[in-house]
Specification:
The protein has helices spanning 3-30, 189-192; strands at residues 34-35, 42-57, 62-67, 75-83, 88-97, 125-134, 138-146, 175-177, 184-188, 201-208, 215-221, 228-238, 241-252, 258-269, 273-283, 301-314, 317-329, 337-349, 354-366, 376-386. It is mostly beta strands and 387 residues long. Strand 12 (228-238) and strand 13 form a beta hairpin.
């Protein structure tokens, strides 16, 4: 073949591909997914990018942190699905954390106010899961994913949970300072605050029963140490009020281990007014925390109440306002009491799947030993782009 003609043909083919490929890719995405390599499963790719600024003051020193998200972070997910038979569907979820900044949930600084938290550069696995769903018999999931109890203490209809939902959300690793000596103590915010949200994500076998009248029941079994949990969820509405509820019981470590149970929920009126609530306890194993054999020295608990409003101020999307109050007792030491107050405003940009919000937090610790601590305060600004 003539070299000149071959070059012309190659350039023409390349130009045609360059013009056609974006159109084909765009069409596939607009159709709801991309066909995978073997052509037998639908593949959807998504995720989110989260960036944040977190200003924290321990009463003596302060620092401004550039972080990944706190309650949520940057991640990429791949969802695969296909119909095995007329009644059985198979699906897979692979999701990675992509941390390229500081961990937003564990900022720390030393007694001089200098940043002492570690930078992160991770590509961790959040979900690695295959699920079989039967048309009438429920679903069976195998792999790393949500346990049946995960998220049951975080149920809300406020729209602000992507900013804050736990009593230690914004400053879990920060040390309280002694208000008399102005010195940092060994007491961390995260050590005193907990919402006891079950067993998180883990390698497990999970079964989800079919939903009936808005009620869903789940159970999962973890590895050989005897950990297991059950979860209950509800979604429904009555008149102009939507309701969402969750409950769980989870045990870890088998005989002599610890367990948690809790309930949480939210109500949303069609006017935009909403309320949140939550309550959870930890059941400690025998001899835990210096109680001696057969003796439990404390009974850790968490309670939450919140009120919010979803307004339609801008055409860009809804604006969410929220006020939350959390109280923990006996989490690290019998008699200790941590109170947390959050004030949050969040704006959603519906046309592009983005949001930006700001939260103010105040954390106050009462110590049964008589030590007095300065309050920890935080101002947190977060942006998130879903794709």
């Amino acid at each position: 073949m003539d070299i000149k003609n071959m070059l012309k043909t190659s350039v023409a083919a390349g130009a045609l591909f360059a013009l056609a490929a974006p159109v084909a890719f765009s069409s596939a995405v607009e159709a709801g997914g991309i066909k995978n390599q073997n052509g037998k499963l639908d593949l959807k790719v998504g995720g989110q990018i989260v960036t944040a600024l977190n200003y924290i003051d321990d009463g003596v020193n302060s620092h401004l942190f550039h972080t990944d998200g706190v309650t949520t972070g940057t991640r990429v997910r791949y969802i695969m699905s296909g119909q095995m038979t007329e009644t059985i569907k198979i699906s897979g979820l692979l999701e990675h954390d992509v941390g390229q900044s500081k961990d937003g949930s564990t900022p720390t600084f030393d007694g001089n106010g200098a940043d002492s938290s570690a930078d992160i550069d991770t590509f961790g696995i959040r979900h690695h899961d295959i699920k079989f769903t039967h048309k009438s018999m429920g679903a069976l999931s195998i792999g790393r994913g949500n346990t049946a109890s995960n998220g049951r203490s975080e149920v809300s209809l406020s729209g602000t949970n992507g900013m804050v939902f736990a009593p230690d959300s914004l400053a879990g690793s920060v040390l309280f300072t002694n208000s008399t000596t102005n010195a940092q103590t060994g007491v961390t915010l995260g050590g005193e605050g907990n919402h006891f949200d079950g067993l998180s994500r883990d390698d497990r076998v999970r079964y989800d029963a079919p939903t009936f009248a808005g009620v869903g029941l789940s159970a999962s079994m973890l590895d050989a140490d005897g950990s297991w949990d059950v979860g209950l969820g509800y979604k429904g509405s009555l008149g102009g009020v939507k309701a969402k509820l969750g409950a769980h019981y989870a045990t870890s470590g088998g005989t002599g281990g610890t367990a948690t149970w809790g309930v949480s929920g939210g109500l949303l009126h069609e006017s935009g007014l909403n309320v949140d609530f939550g309550y959870a306890r930890q059941i400690l194993g025998n001899g835990t925390n210096g109680g001696g054999a057969g003796v439990v020295s404390r009974s850790p608990s968490w309670v939450k109440g919140g009120i919010g409003y979803i307004a339609k101020i801008f055409s860009l999307g809804p604006t969410h306002f929220g006020l939350q109050y959390h109280e923990n007792e006996d989490v690290a030491t019998a008699g200790n009491d941590l109170t947390t107050v959050y004030v949050t405003a969040l704006q959603k940009f519906s046309s592009v799947g983005a949001e930006a919000g700001i939260s103010y937090a105040d954390y106050s610790l009462d110590d049964t030993a008589g030590t007095t601590y300065d309050d920890i305060t935080a101002v947190y600004f977060q942006t998130k782009l879903n794709f």
